[in-house]
Amino acid sequence: MNLRNDLRGLGRALRLTARRLRVQALAWILPLWLGMASFAPAYQDAYFSAAGDAGGAGGNAVVEALRASPGTRLLYGELPDPGTIGQLVQWEGATYLLVCTALMAVLLTCRLLRADEDEGLIELLRSAGTGRWVPFLAPVLVIWAAVGVLAALVGGTLAAEAAQIESLPAAGGWALAGVTAVVGWGFAGLAAVACQLARSAAGARPLALACVGVAFMVRVAADQWELTWLRWLTPLGWRDLVAPYTDDDPMPLAACAAICVVLVAAAGALYAHREYAGGYLPDRATSGRRWRIHGYADLLTRLSTRTTLAWAAAVVCFAALFGSTTEGILEMMRDERIAEYVNMLVQAGADMMEQFMSLMTVMMVLLIAVAATGQAGRLAADEAAGLVEAEAAVGVPRRRLFLMQAVSAAAVGAILLVLCGAVLAAVTATQVTEDHAVARAFVFTVTQLPGVLAAIGIALAVVGVAPRRFGLVWAVIAWSAFARLLGGMMDLPTWAQDLSVLGHYLDVVGDPDWVPLAVQTAIGVLGTAVGLVAYRRRDLSGAG
């Protein structure tokens, strides 16, 4: 076959893939873009608002405190000298941007490159006469384009802000845009390799996400041991090679882009020699052992155990990581200018310990809300795969299917919250004990259960009414994270920030406010009831 036949229909496949991906891509791109746009003005107002301080001079006490903190070094890496606004943006803001870009690239690649094959869409595409390379190239190119759009928006916004902020040169903004692009492309390439190695999307997704976790740990090791060569082995370390707002070196960008091409080429080689719907790794999705199942609840528990254990391991690791930074970050927050910056992120007027614990537990509960919501959404995925139809055919009532899924999701959320709170409190106890730090670490985490239940209720309502629109649930989670973590920096009104499933908790100090928790619980119950009524009345979509 010649190249023309192998690429036949690529243009139409690109347009179709872009059309399918537009909502999910925008749901990732817009919050990340708006968040990056807010960092530089926030730094200028909080850290460099003193008269005559333009954000470019050395000797800033706040910057020195950030640089000296072991906790911030662990999370964000090494803050370059002298600590200008641009360097702060690429240090803290870009850390969030690059990790989220990596997650976007990984999840979208696994969805388009492997889940479509599992669902038979690739077979349908090939039967329409497209070339053999089209099902591989179309998803990769569209995802690279989505990452490129995000990078262009970030670079253009930072370049525009350079006109108002002296120490934010436009060249640094475009260098950071280049880093964003190659990091996203690199993780898309890694995810493409994972999709060829694994035998299904269910196997490829955790493998690709594990690559993100390993990449972060390698970046931390490179920073702690000051090993420059180690940064080449992790896309999350490429930022320090380019050094936006410091060196703006284009040569590492070119080398990293070449690495991305090599990763995609390797994935293509694996694709060319792989059987359709097959893989290179052993198939662990099935087992020859016979299970003695005692009802649908037992079956659901067994099927969910491996995923729940994976989430539990992730929660424990992040809780231990965040807890280990408590003492260093609290020491920094004693500076008035850092305290002013924190006031923009969380409620002003609260004491320092409450602000810190609120911010830290929101990030942890965000992870748990994703896990619990995903568990609730398994019913929609099972329905699309035809499993619900098979279960109903053997006499399991649809009402039981729905309610057991709801109970399972709530149980996953509760177990992970207790586990997270316990680990966070235990590690915090080794760092600081004043101001009820240990009790607050546990109570702030566990009392956000109503928010998790609200997210589950919304998810179940969508499953009951329109399971194909489950992406709306992720939009709710994304808005909740944006409102709580960046709403203050974006000057969102208080009522808009409160429209979140995250960040409502009880405090061990003062009178508890039960109203937000009661409202969230009511939303969870109402969403579950609406979903149950709709689910019992509508037709099953089935696998066909």
Task: Walk me through what this model shows.
This protein is mainly alpha-helical and 544 residues long. 74% of the residues lie in helices and 0% in strands. It contains 23 helices and no strands. Helix 8 packs parallel to helix 12.
Reconstruct the topology from this structure.
Blueprint: H1 3-6, H2 10-47, H3 61-68, H4 70-76, H5 85-118, H6 121-127, H7 134-161, H8 170-197, H9 201-225, H10 228-231, H11 238-242, H12 250-272, H13 296-324, H14 326-333, H15 336-345, H16 352-384, H17 387-393, H18 398-429, H19 437-446, H20 449-465, H21 471-485, H22 494-498, H23 515-537
Helix pairs in contact: 2-5, 2-7, 2-15, 2-21, 5-7, 5-8, 5-9, 7-8, 8-9, 8-12, 13-16, 13-18, 15-16, 16-18, 16-19, 16-20, 16-21, 18-19, 18-20, 18-23, 20-21, 20-23
**Nearest-integer average pLDDT:** 86
Portion in strands: under 5%
Structural class, judged by helices and strands? mainly alpha
Q: Order of helices and strands, N to C? A: HHHHHHHHHHHHHHHHHHHHHHH
| SS element count, helices | 23
End-to-end C-alpha gap:
33 Å
Low-confidence spans: pLDDT under 50, at least 5 residues?
none
What is the 3D form?
Answer: globular
Q: What is the helix fraction of residues, given as a range? A: over 70%
Tell me the radius of gyration: 24 Å
The total strand number stands at 0
Query: Main β-sheet: number of strands, strand sense, barrel status?
Result: none
